[in-house]
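Q: Structure tokens for this one, please.
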Amino acid sequence: MAALLELHSTFELQRDVLPLLLLLGGGSGTEARAPPSDSDQKNPESLHVVNVERNGKILYTWKGNQRYTNIGLYDPNTKQNQLLYTYQKDVLVVSCSVNHEMTLLAFSYLDAESVPKQQRSGSKYLTLLIEIHPVNDLRVLKATESYVQVQFLYPVENNKSSPESHLLLILEDRYIEVCHISVVYKDGCRVVLANSALPPKDRAAEDIIWAQWDMLEQRLFYIIPKKKTHFLQCIQFYPNKSFTLMIDVPLDIQFPATALRLVNFGYNHYQDRASDKESLNLQVFTSKSGDLCMCYCSGQEMQKVTYSVMFFHKGYCKTFTADVSRTACVHGKDILFLNIGVYVAVHLPGHFLHLLNMQHPHLMCYNFFLTGEAAKINILHYEPGCVQSLLEAGVFDYCTGKMFTASINQSAVLGLLSNSKWDCLRLASMHCALLNFEDVTFSEAEVTQWICDSPSKCQSFDPIQEFIIASLYRKMSGKASHLHKMLPYTSVPHWNGVIPGVTCRTDLIALPTLKTKSPNGMWAKLQSDLEYMKHDSEYKLRRDWCKLISEVNTDEKRTSIYHQNIVQNIKRVLSKLETWNSEPRLVPIFLEEDYHHKELVGLIIVKLKAHLMKNLQHLRKNEIDGIVLNYVSTLLKQFLLVMETVWKKYCLGSSVFCLKERGTAQELSVFYIMGRILEAANGMRLPLPPGFYTLHTALGVRCLPLCTFLHYIDNGVLLLTETCVTRLLKDLDNSEKNEKLKFSIVARLPEALCQKAYQLWDHPVSSTYFATNYVKRLLEKRWKNEQLCRRYCIEHSRTSVNFLPLNYLVDMLAEVEDKALNPFEEDTVDSKFVEEIGLKQTRTTLSLYTHCYSIPK
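A: Here is the predicted structure, written as tokens:
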């Protein structure tokens, strides 16, 4: 089985850089040394990467034969290498960054020539700013006893150059500065500064114990202590020299006094790894949809590991405890947090892989928790702080000099769906396949195929319901802003199942406070989510919609205007449904419009429209009408998609409506799958495509024994529609077996359908029905006369008879026949016809009685 988390190599230092260095000739110290062996990978003099910039360009350093320090750059777009600068000293580069215009280079280093290895930890670090295009000037920015990380800010508008560059200086002394460097032209050459003074600086943050750089969005997250607690803050940097404090949120965590931990500021190959292991293992992840979460390793023991994920955009924290007692000791190993699109990956090498859904973290069953072989990520060389999640879904392994793009393997997800024995993994796989992959058509086809193959495998959720709701959410949530907050994304409101190997505790946390009044981009979406969370609106709106659906009642009496509105909406939905698929339709289910489903479709349209108009007041009425129409038609299309897959799987055609033949084993399988579809729709109070009941009942006639078929009708599983009854009475002859079937069905019809059915059935039972109704109608008209009514009441109160004397009845009918209109003028019903039927019934009754009371000889 393929690995769930898939890493694709986009850069390898030994592959993309070293061949070029081997081609460099001697001179100026730019020649390359021989490729370092595996034993030299951690040698300070070996080739290694020091930083990755926002545009994806990679900075690396190496030593030439003359022991000069070279700094090069690899462009992943052009796949070209460029020598940026040669520093004619043997130094240990700690950090390095180049500005967007490729004119300024900043790096900090430790002098390797004059300092013995055993004394380097207390030596002085120098931070230089160098003009490199052309080489013109060099300035010392910092001279400290502790290391300094440097990082140029990159403008969002990458195609624009600026006369000013901005440089972050992150000091081990727990503060961060921003240098503003003005570049001017003088005598046709570019110089760093207009005067000899050092560039002006702003103090961005101080007293920090942890900091993380978001290079893609130019954000700085950091944690500071404040009044016996700690706060997570974030600064947003803009293309000009301004920056703004965006959020401030208290953390209910007691952080130990540890070394400063820096995340995504490059990699210091000469830092003491022992101190790095003792620092905070914490990382913040964001997404363009407004998600903001923080992952934190709470603690490790010999047999279990605890880690927490704070979903700030949802207002709660989930703390997980993973059991690792079955594997080797985990003491001393660090958990790795990675950003994988909408998922956060928590990986403990050799033990487990946990993928958490950032958008829908409410239910544990939408998380992947894998152990053993399924949890391995073999191509990562793991050390604390060595592997960093830089860009979105981008991973850099600084120890090996390799960059990867991380993604979830679609085939692995579908494999888990098919082969897993746990409902939690099936549900997570189904949800991931339907909501997160770009090729939604392929995912839907695979999921529906799995549903057809294993319709009864899941015990804790209905796969058909989950397919309908999740695919509906995927297709409709982006139609309008905030619509995703009102539509359900799952059919599972609560999850009480068990995920083997991990336990979870959920705690409420404080919501972030946005410090700016008019945010944009991701911050605007986060603010919108927080507003909904403050009023519990997101969950309330989804609950309201589910409640509306559950209260849909087709038996309620409606006004004529209300009914006309429903009928018009139904016509619009069905007109869209007729063109749902460009290929020839396989399933013959548009033969009629079931009244039950028509009514249900219309009511859902009315309810959903009122729901959206109440909560999406920024949309116009015609926009809401379009959303509602698309929602209901898409809902019916998803049911049709399942039906089409079933039809293809069992190679059925339209012959199921030939009721004269018995059904096959394939048709019986389809019948039971349609029963599951019906059960799923009824469980959610959702309509099915018109004609579904007719097709289901037709399959029941062909495949089931009569007693089982009638039992399904009596229990409401099968619905007798007018189309199905008409086909049954017309197609089947009046053999003894078919007569029994017809009579059993007609006896179960409602009054409205019963009269039409008897008109189609040429049988003595039909004649008796018409004669009885004819007499009933004529007598009702005659009994309107007061005297006849009084006489009838007296006679009726005196005795109760079920069979009137035939002669008296015929005389009465002949007397009133000329005075009353025949309610069955289209049929040949008159007193003579009634007399014939009465004689037959009398003979039948008398012979029956004679047989019953005859004395044996």
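A few notes: The chain has a mean pLDDT of 78. The CA atoms of residues 712 and 718 lie 6 Å apart.
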